[in-house]
Design goal:
Blueprint lengths: L12 E5 L4 H12 L3 E6 L2 H11 L6 E5 L5 H15 L4 E4 L21 H29 L2 E6 L12 H24 L4 E8 L8 H4 L8 H8 L13 H8 L10 E4 L10
Length: 273
């Protein structure tokens, strides 16, 4: 039998929204090292420039485009720029997202303290900020009859993790959008464009570090609660997302669509008893 590497992603053109951030930037670095070509999309020009400069130490096959994932006209221009340079788009990773204090319920607050303006902004960023890129770049994939879209869900999407109501609601919407888009692309475009998501468990980053750890490095009460409900008894490392991302965009996952893959140290499997 001829030797085939189902996991070969060299030469793939990969667009990463939120690519200047910690999560998207880490994915970009890994994918470049595997021989892929990467496009970083992020909001602030200085952040994009800085990240692209860092990534070029790995490979010259990276470009950055600054603008909002909520601006469909900007996304259309970015699409044209990418196609002019590389002629196709193989993968979209929707890594843009985030949270705001007003969409979070503090320990001394109730749901009635929710700030609806912040809730709306979080919902728009996490949901619309994945839907719009999926429409713009997904259309390219539909026309070329090949491609893979990978969304970022969360452990907060499937169960009530206290405090993060806005983030939870928008990530739950990502789950059903992933399944809906996967079905749409499979039924109407010959099954040639796949749509999946990963659902990270708990990873310590700049946004949640103070929530999970104390200044001395010990865990806060919330950090200890999460660890108590994670069978592997630790937080994840951003590098541990890359294997699932790689698999989902490769030919090894050619019959996989509409799935949400947990990467959570067993959090979603554990009953807590």
């Amino acid at each position: 039998m001829e030797k085939i590497n189902l996991f070969d992603i060299s030469g793939k053109i990969i667009v990463i929204t939120g690519g200047a951030g910690a999560l998207g930037g880490n994915m970009a670095a890994y994918l470049l090292a595997q021989g892929a070509k990467v496009v970083i999309l992020d909001l602030f020009p200085e952040s994009v420039e800085k990240r692209v400069g860092e990534l070029k130490e790995i490979s010259s096959d990276v470009i950055g485009i600054a603008g909002s994932v909520l601006d469909q006209e900007h996304l259309g221009k970015a699409k044209s720029e990418i196609l002019d340079k590389w002629g196709k788009i193989d993968v979209l990773i929707n890594a843009a997202g985030g949270n705001m204090p007003g969409a979070t319920i503090g320990v001394d607050q109730t749901i009635f303290d929710l700030k609806m303006d912040d809730f709306k902004k979080v919902s728009e960023l996490n949901l619309n900020g994945s839907v719009l890129p999926s429409m713009v770049f997904g259309e390219v994939m539909a026309n070329q009859r090949s491609g893979s879209i990978i969304n970022i869900s969360s452990m907060t999407a499937t169960q009530a993790v206290t405090r993060v109501v806005g983030y939870s609601a928008s990530k739950a919407a990502i789950d059903i959008f992933t399944k809906w888009m996967a079905t749409e692309m499979a039924l109407k475009f010959e099954g040639s464009v796949r749509v999946n998501a990963i659902a990270p468990g708990f990873f310590i980053g700049n946004q949640n570090r103070a929530l999970l750890t104390n200044e001395d490095g010990s865990y806060t009460d919330r950090g200890n609660t999460i660890i108590a409900n994670t069978p592997m008894k630790r937080f994840g490392d951003a590098d541990e997302l890359n294997g699932a991302i790689h698999w989902l965009m490769s030919d090894a996952a050619s019959f996989v669509t509409g799935t949400i893959v947990p990467i959570d140290g067993g959090f979603s499997a554990f009953s807590g008893v």
